[in-house]
Specification:
The complex is a heterodimer of chains A (about 110) and B (about 110).
Chain A (H helix, E strand, L loop, with lengths): L3 E4 L2 E4 L5 E7 L5 E8 L3 E8 L6 E2 L6 E5 L5 E5 L8 E8 L9 E2 L3 E5 L1
Parallel strand pairs in A: 2-11
Antiparallel strand pairs in A: 1-3, 3-8, 4-5, 4-9, 5-6, 7-8, 9-10, 9-11
Chain B lengths: L3 E2 L4 E5 L4 E7 L6 E7 L6 E7 L4 E4 L2 E6 L4 E6 L8 E8 L6 E2 L3 E6 L1
Parallel strand pairs in B: 2-11
Antiparallel strand pairs in B: 1-3, 3-8, 4-5, 4-9, 6-7, 7-8, 9-10, 9-11
Classes of the chains: A mainly beta (about 110), B mainly beta (about 110).
C-alpha cells in the first residue's frame, strides 16, 4: 500500500541543468498535483491534472512543465533550473470530487539549485 | 494576494491544554476546507475536513469550526499531546479540484 511515491528524495542541480521529478500513485485516483513548499509561503500549486490526458497551470507554473503519462504517473520537469526553484516539491493525488480526506501526498523531493 | 491566511506562524501550548489554530480566507466561493499536519521530512497528512454546509466537525481530539460569515475556521486540539507538535496547514477549495493552502502554523506542545 504505497500511496504516492516520489523520486528522487534529494537532488542538487547546477543552474541551467534540467531534471524530471517523478510521481506515481497506486490508488486509482483521477487527479494529480505538484506543489512546492517554501519557508513562509506554505504550499503553492505548480501544475495539476484533473484527469488523465489533461493538465492545467496552478499559481506558480513558470519554469516548469508537466506530463500526465497515464493515470498513475505525473512528472514535473525543470528545463533550465534556477536558484529560485530551490524548494521542497510535493506530489499529491485526489480521488475525484471533493470528499473526505482530500489529497494524499508523497514524502517530497528536496531540490537545491546552486 | 493570499486567499488563505494563517496569521500565527507559531504557537506553543502546554501538554494537556487546548491548542487553537486559526485560518482566514477571502474567497466566498470556497466551500470545502481541510486541515493537514506535517512533520519534518514527511509529506502533509490529512487531519480533518469540513464542508460549508456545516459549522463544526469532530474527530476524536480534533474539532474544526467554520464561521462562514467571518470567513474563518479554527482547529481545536484537546487535550494537546507532545506528538501533536508539527506544522498545521489549512486548505480551501471551491469545487475546482484544487486546494489553496495557508502558510502554516508551527505548533509546539510542551511536556
Amino acid at each position: 500500500n504505497a500511496g504516492v511515491t516520489q523520486t528522487p528524495k534529494f537532488q542538487v542541480l547546477k543552474t541551467g541543468q534540467s531534471m524530471t521529478l517523478q510521481c506515481a500513485q497506486d490508488m486509482n485516483h483521477n487527479s494529480m498535483y505538484w506543489y512546492r513548499q517554501d519557508p513562509g509561503m506554505g504550499l503553492r500549486l505548480i501544475y495539476y491534472s484533473a484527469s488523465e490526458g489533461t493538465t492545467d497551470k496552478g499559481e506558480v507554473p513558470n519554469g516548469y512543465n508537466v506530463s500526465r503519462l497515464n493515470k498513475r504517473e505525473f512528472s514535473l520537469r525543470l528545463e533550465s533550473a534556477a536558484p529560485s526553484q530551490t524548494s521542497v516539491y510535493f506530489c499529491a493525488s485526489l480521488k475525484g470530487a471533493e470528499g473526505a480526506g482530500g489529497y494524499t501526498f508523497g514524502s517530497g523531493t528536496r531540490l537545491t539549485v546552486v | 494576494d493570499q486567499q488563505v491566511k494563517q496569521n500565527s506562524p507559531s504557537l506553543s501550548v502546554q501538554e494537556g491544554r487546548i491548542s487553537i489554530l486559526n485560518c482566514d480566507y477571502t474567497n466566498s466561493m470556497f466551500d470545502y476546507f481541510l486541515w493537514y499536519k506535517k512533520y519534518p521530512a514527511e509529506g502533509p497528512t490529512f487531519l480533518i475536513s469540513i464542508s460549508s454546509i456545516k459549522d463544526k466537525n469532530e474527530d476524536g481530539r480534533f474539532t474544526v469550526f467554520l464561521n462562514k460569515s467571518a470567513k474563518h475556521l479554527s482547529l481545536h486540539i484537546v487535550p494537546s499531546q507532545p506528538g501533536d507538535s508539527a506544522v498545521y496547514f489549512c486548505a480551501a477549495s471551491g469545487g475546482t479540484y484544487k486546494y489553496i493552502f495557508g502558510t502554516g502554523t508551527r505548533l509546539k506542545v510542551l511536556a
